[in-house]
Amino acid sequence: MSEQESVTDRVFGSSVERREDRSILTGVAEYTDEKLPEAAHVAILRSQYAHATLESVDVDQAENRDDVVAVFTGADVEESGIPNDIPTAWSLPGLVTPQYRIMATDKVRHTGDAIAAVVAEDRYAAHNALGDIDVTYDRLDAVTEPDEAVDSDVTVHEEAPDNVAFDFTIGDADAVSEAFSAADHVTSVDLEQPRIIPNAVEPRAAAADYDPDSDDLTVWMTSQNPHLHRMLMSTATLGHPEHKLRIVAPEVGGGFGSKIYHYPDEAITAWCAKQLGRAVTWQATRREGYITDCHGRDHVTEAELAVDTDGSIRGLRVETHAGLGAHLSQFATATPSYLYATILSSEYDIPAIHCRVIGAFTNTTPVDAYRGAGRAEGIYVTERIVDVAASELGMDPAEIRRTNLISPDEFPFETSVAMVYDSGEYETAMDRALELVEYDELRDRQRELRDDDRYLGIGIANFVESAGLSPSKAAGELGAAAGGWEAGVVRFHPSGTVTVACGTADQGQGHRTTFAQVAAEELGVPLEDVDVVEGDTDAVPQGMGTYGSRSGPVGGGAIATSARKVVEKAKRIAAHSLEASVDDVEFDDGEFSVVGAPDRSVTIQEVALEAYLGHDIPGDAEPGLEATSYYDPENFTFPFGTHVAVVEVDPETGEVDLQTYVAVDDCGEQINPMIVEGQVHGGIAQGVGAALYEGAVYDDTGTLVTGSMNEYALPRAHQLPDYETDSTVTPSPHNPIGVKGVGESATIAAAPAVVNAVVDALEPFDVDHLDMPLSNERVWRAIDAATGGDS
Length: 791
Ligand code: MCN
Prior knowledge:
This protein is α+β, with helices and mostly antiparallel strands. 29% of the residues lie in helices and 23% in strands. The protein contains 21 helices and 28 strands. Strand 23 (591-594) and strand 24 (597-603) form a beta hairpin. The chain is globular, with a radius of gyration of 27 Å. The structure holds pterin cytosine dinucleotide (MCN). Pterin cytosine dinucleotide binds next to helix 16, helix 17 and helix 19.
């Protein structure tokens, strides 16, 4: 126990050490692949082509190998009579939803589609046997780009002949037309946001054990939301009774969104265990992950901003083609629609916004939420076009932003794209960031350096983010097939220690630490007396999981709500013991005392024992001391902030040197400032990665060219500067602990901050926009084109 961890004086808000780190760092923590050491191994045959009709799948040779237990095809799955349809969890008007089988039967639509599964005694045998399966394909043309897909002769699904899965609009088109007619100036930008491939340290995995006698099926898996996985496996893919299905997420080595979804592979693994009546395990290889883990982004956008010469924004018009990949993943529809279009107002009072999003099927890996999901894409559009407008108007990028900021007295603020922002002090955070980076001095330096042909760029990005998906009713009205609540249990044990259970599922965020802090603070018990349980459908009553930066605001809200219920009940028992009226008893730091008679007191631990003895509790009270809450917040929370990146571009090579990065974030009350800072650090790295290095590339045949870490560039530590971070605190009124989410904020802000910086550096070359990733080659080509080949 560290000195810090025993702190009980206002434990909420202190940077106590992360309790999860010791076991992770010492290798004691157990991951999915270690759960069933005796299990047989599953290997999955993926399609050789991105688009083809399956003429035949001959598994005889593979099946005849001594080390192979069984080989299954899509036909076997179909014959087993399971529902076999991975669903989308968010419907939109007119949405086309083709069946998404766990193994292909007639056609393959991207190279990650599963065709057959081999079960063998060891992993190598299973993978070797894949080579003995003989598939005859009738190859078809492929389409990979969302804007091209809608005009293509290639049809991914017969149900959508034009490859359009949905055509979504939001905002008042007439009001936007009027704004554009009235404005002094219109800025237009075409932008592409390339696909990002998630790179969790641990690739996806599943292990399944089936007991035919009891019909109990247990699946350990890399899951960000075990209860959702249980529900989907039960109702949509396997048809296994929900109460006989247990999903456990052991230690999960990162997710970044990619482990939210129900993929075919986990269902195939569980199905194999049931077919064979024996334990099986599947572990994705990194290359397999690259073609099957849902990718992020994939937007092609045309944006226009109506703005007056003084910088006042009158309107924003956006049209986006969003790639969905070959199949609809669970939030594939919500991410480019409601999570994207509703955040286009960023921190600004934009009177009229209209956005149209065409979701298109392509012969590529499915696309879904990746850290920042939808909000990152939306903020990128706004923060980029605001910069271009500033440049066209000859304004400073900080000034155009300041001109349009929503002011603190305007909250709650309803945007023209249906969001009601909770609270914000946008200018304070922006001023702090500009002060930290020494903005005015930097601009002077930039001018000086240009005289020496050196190109410094300063990029500002403001952001607001809708974090903590909720509330259930509104989500349901907009098409969600899931709620926005979270379940939290707070249970005292007779000896006075506490177990907290929450339906969220950690993948590195530190919930075991921060949730214990929330409960310890509310109950007034030592931090070390609180344990946190997550990630097991048998140990937690229900849950919606961890994504959309919801665990702090919604999971934390559920825990605080339950803790307060526990304190209320304990107060009644304490009043009974102290022979006082409940109204005369006050609670402070774990102790109940009679108002005006502090010596008449009892600790919450003593009350817990009394509650479990049940010998002397009020007549209307049940024994025991625990509470469960299904906490359903009234709205999202809206974290915000300003990030500033400073780069120098080498005009000879196009190399971007990221020199300084300043981040000022406001995520409301901070449960653990060190963890918040860690989230910001990780988030910046991912945003910088998107801006400068990452981006999946497909060739015309639908083959992923960036199919491994050899070809897909992730940011390295040496490419990132020391970050300077700071925060302001504007509590959210939308949950009992004033917390706003923070897990995605920095990823959302970093990409536009860095791109704005690079484009700012290139101003002397008249470059007004460059698409991510800003590789040396792309930057160099832009300079070369501007200088007529003289660079
Ligand atoms: N927190 C806090 N004070 C606040 C807000 C949050 O102390 N005001 C703490 C929370 O209690 C939690 C952590 O910060 O321990 C992140 O909280 P939150 O913003 O609620 O996000 P979630 O826990 O729901 O995590 C999801 C978010 C998302 S959507 C992605 S993607 C992401 C991320 O978090 N993936 C991650 N951070 C990640 N961090 C790691 N290490 N690995 C991932 O895969």
